[in-house]
Amino acid sequence: MDHSLPPVVSADWLTGQRSIVIVHVGTTMSGRDPAADYVDRRLPAARYVSLDDDLAAPPAPIEGRHPLPTPTAFAAVLNRLGVDAKSSVVAYDDRNGAFAARLVWMLRIIGQPAALLDGGIALWPGPFESGPPDRADAGLDRQAVPWPVEAIANADDVAAHIESGGVVIDSRDPQRFAGEIEPIDAVAGHSPGAINLPFVDNIADGRWRDTADLTARFAVAANDPQAIVYCGSGVTACHNALAIEAAGQPLPRVFVGSWSGWSTDPERPVATDAR
Q1: Which CATH class is domain 149-262?
Q2: Topology adopted by domain 8-123
Q3: Where do you find CATH 3.40.250.10 in the chain?
Q4: Rounded to a whole number, what is the largest CA-CA distance in the chain?
Q5: Is 238 a catalytic residue?
Q6: Is 261 exposed, middle or buried, given 0-12, 13-18 or 19+ CB atoms closer than 10 A?
Q7: pLDDT in tens, the chain (275 residues)
Q8: Whether the predicted model's global pTM rises above the 0.85 cut
Q9: How far apart are CA 99 and CA 232, in angstroms?
Q10: DSSP strand E in the chain: where?
């Protein structure tokens, strides 16, 4: 893993950099047309990537709503963006990294320098660009890099890790964790034995919490280098994964199938306690 960039960088830091590939991450989960948002307003020279189409394979039972794309498909996306093996990438969205964290995590686990922009587009001081981007395909010949097995967990890994007393963190909001509501998946609740640390609490007043706050927040995982994080579909779990790394701990494994995968398997138990 490349540590030449921290998991999160500030707008002040980015303003003074050159040769950084800036990526605008859009998704239909925002409730708007993400490509239109990008055309309307983006950081200068930012390139566009779709979470739904570029950073995930089609949804499938057990695999979840946002499985990882194949390494070959992801390499094609990076080629299009002009991200070669030595590029440093800063990604942002309009939800303080809720979606862009997926790209940053994907890049970091394959050894690519990548970071989230603290505050995202909401706190970017300007300038901005608008209009159709004038950019052709970068035409690189980047080769596929296999997803490292040590960075990724499946449902069996989650069950085994909980059984052995390991830390598994559910990144969703408390109501979904407790099974009080479930607006997306067919079954409400969580994986028995998981603990709830909502990813949104990594943010305070629109910015990422400082290292001391994150260290205290994720102290429960400090002695578990094999900790696992999950969410609804393996997207916002990446936000917690990066927060744990920002706290100085090893990057945890991400259960990519997450609740959307676990809950479609009738053999998997479901808990609805709020602990």
Answers
A1: alpha beta
A2: Oxidized Rhodanese; domain 1 (3.40.250)
A3: 8-123, 149-262
A4: 53
A5: no
A6: buried
A7: 555 799 999 999 999 898 999 999 999 987 789 999 999 999 999 999 999 999 999 999 999 999 999 999 999 999 999 999 999 999 999 999 999 999 999 999 999 999 999 999 999 999 999 999 876 556 678 899 999 999 999 999 999 999 999 999 999 999 999 999 999 998 999 999 999 999 999 999 999 999 999 999 999 999 999 999 999 999 999 999 999 999 999 999 999 999 999 999 999 999 998 76
A8: yes
A9: 12
A10: 8-9, 20-26, 47-50, 88-92, 114-117, 152-153, 168-170, 195-196, 203-204, 207-208, 228-230, 253-255
Active-site entry in 11, 46, 77, 231 = 231
Residue 176 CB-density burial (10 A; 0-12 exposed, 13-18 middle, 19+ buried): buried
Give the pair of three-digit tokens for residue 7: 């998991």
**Token pair 């040590």: residue:** 150
Look at the chain and count its residues: 275
Pairing mode, strands 253-255 and 195-196: unpaired
Looking up tokens 């660009």, which residue turns up?
A: 129
